[in-house]
Amino acid sequence: MAVLICGSLAFDTIMGFPGRFAEQILPDQLHILNVSFLVPALRRDFGGCAGNIAYSLKLLGGEPVPMAMLGSDGGEYLERLQSLGISTRGVGQVQDTYTAQAMIMTDRDNNQITAFHPGAMMQAHTQRIAAGAAADVRIAIIAPDGRDAMIEHAEQLHAAGIPFVFDPGQGLPMFSGDELLRFVGQATWVTVNDYEGKMLCERTGLDVPQLSRKVRGLVVTLGGQGCEVWEQGECTLVPPTAPAAIVDPTGCDDAWRGALLFGLERGWPLVRCAELGNRLGALKIAARGPQNYVLDFDPALLGA
């Protein structure tokens, strides 16, 4: 069965800064911040949450269906998806703007500074999820996208009776506490990183155990520390998988979410999904770019 991935498709311009941001930014001068970073390493990759999650899920043998919007420069991305065998039936294209663009700078400690131009992503809400058209979709995810698209697609999935993961990511600051509570009320699962989890709690007025009681499961990813799986107020710490190398963190969370969806679509327990997610995250961080890693195991051996 297919997995619908609502989110962004973007081109990532990734720059490597060999120093540390903390050594270049003076905390007592933030009110007059004016810094420049020399970045000897630069490359352009296919990215965006929907594209990255679809890549991960497809590697594992899933059937991702990205729902996203490309701009006038998006032909190359369409060809990329088709070459990977990923369905483009949910991908639209507008001609009066560019595809979303992310400019990501990473320092030697894997801290990141990102500038994001949404472009065509802001038209993603014009695509609608109809129950009939999504008859082969078993589960879905609401990943970072245009504000209107995230709200409307969550409502449409809920109305169609399709269980979904709410993954607000870097889009979380766009929403009020009431809006976030509505997302949680519509979702079946929620996933956030540690920082996003704290913000979600602050804005909703609920702590993580309370939020976890409103859904079937809530996961807080902790980077190199693994992740917390919360179910009905109870926490299970899932240890990390040690990576072969730490090269580039860009897209690690998306790789993790692709594995999450793979397991959920197969009815796995949430802890087992998280274990696979940690494994995919470790593979991703050892490769440059969000869609350039390969599996070091046969996914057919994962079983049902």
Descriptors:
304 residues, alpha/beta, UDP-N-acetylmuramoyl-L-alanine:D-glutamate ligase, nine-stranded mixed sheet, four-stranded mixed sheet, 9 helices, 31% helix
Topology:
Layout: E1 2-6, E2 10-16, H1 21-24, E3 41-47, H2 49-59, E4 63-70, H3 75-83, E5 91-93, E6 100-106, E7 112-117, E8 137-142, H4 147-160, E9 164-166, H5 177-186, E10 189-193, H6 194-204, H7 208-212, E11 217-221, E12 227-231, E13 234-238, H8 252-265, H9 270-285
Parallel strand pairs: 1-4, 1-8, 2-6, 4-5, 8-9, 9-10, 10-11
Antiparallel strand pairs: 2-3, 6-7, 11-12, 12-13
Helix pairs in contact: 2-8, 5-6, 8-9
3D architecture notes:
Strands 5-4-1-8-9-10-11-12-13 form a nine-stranded mixed beta sheet, with helices on both faces. It has a four-stranded mixed beta sheet with strand order 3-2-6-7. It contains nine helices and 13 strands. It has a single domain (2-23, 40-290), classed as Ribokinase (UDP-N-acetylmuramoyl-L-alanine:D-glutamate ligase). With 304 residues, it is of the alpha/beta class. The chain is globular, with a radius of gyration of 19 Å. The protein has helices at 21-24, 49-59, 75-83, 147-160, 177-186, 194-204, 208-212, 252-265, 270-285, and strands at residues 2-6, 10-16, 41-47, 63-70, 91-93, 100-106, 112-117, 137-142, 164-166, 189-193, 217-221, 227-231, 234-238. Strand 9, helix 5 and strand 10 form a beta-alpha-beta unit.
